[in-house]
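Figure 6 in text form: structure in, sequence out.
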């Protein structure tokens, strides 16, 4: 059975960088997908679907459920390794429930853990506005992305806590420290 790890965290929490490094250190067994990167790839392809996606990303809003679910389900089913890390999912109650329904009716993939990278809003703001790498990195969009992240967070935490799969990690340290802790946690579960 393949093992799935989800990483959630505020914009600027470092979740994509952390997961990238862990996958890079373990190319024999771990593959990583960033939900945001998968969606941006679709935008870059210039497809009709990409144009729709762009309208949501550029405002910091969530891309519609059906698009996001099919994006990550495709990535999971094509994953070439036995351990899959996806960051940036779920970002809503409906995404969480949709994945739960999909996982319930199959036996190929097991959700092992949901890792929440915790950073304060101040640290997240400094990191995002400091790095400003794209059109969605300005103050208004940041504020919207932050509130979109925080709105369902308590319910997402309690759902995964009840399922005994929630793991929190302090994201306000150096990348090396965070990656070391996250990597040893992942490895202890595979
Ligand atoms: P990220 O790179 O994770 O910060 O994501 C960038 C943008 O991609 C977000 O602001 C959303 O517009 C979109 N996005 C990423 N993940 C999701 C998701 N799980 N559901 C809906 N939209 C998403």
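Output sequence:
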């Amino acid at each position: 059975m393949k093992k799935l790890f989800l990483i959630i965290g505020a914009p600027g929490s470092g979740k994509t960088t952390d997961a990238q490094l862990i996958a890079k250190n373990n190319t024999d067994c771990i593959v990583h997908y960033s939900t945001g990167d998968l969606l941006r790839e679709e935008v870059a392809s210039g497809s009709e679907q990409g144009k729709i996606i762009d309208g949501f990303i550029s405002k910091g809003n969530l891309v519609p459920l059906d698009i996001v679910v099919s994006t990550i389900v495709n990535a999971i089913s094509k994953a070439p390794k036995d351990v899959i890390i996806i960051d940036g999912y779920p970002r809503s109650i409906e995404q969480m429930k949709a994945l739960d329904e999909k996982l319930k009716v199959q036996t190929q993939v097991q959700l092992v853990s949901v890792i929440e990278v915790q950073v304060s809003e101040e640290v997240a703001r400094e990191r995002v506005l400091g790095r400003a790498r794209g059109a969605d990195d300005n103050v208004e969009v940041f504020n919207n992305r932050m509130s979109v992240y925080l709105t369902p967070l308590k319910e997402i935490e309690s759902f995964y806590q009840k399922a005994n799969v929630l793991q929190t990690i302090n994201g306000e340290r150096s990348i090396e420290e965070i990656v070391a802790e996250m990597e040893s946690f992942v490895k202890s579960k595979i």
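Caption detail: The domain at 2-188 is CATH 3.40.50.300 (Rossmann fold).
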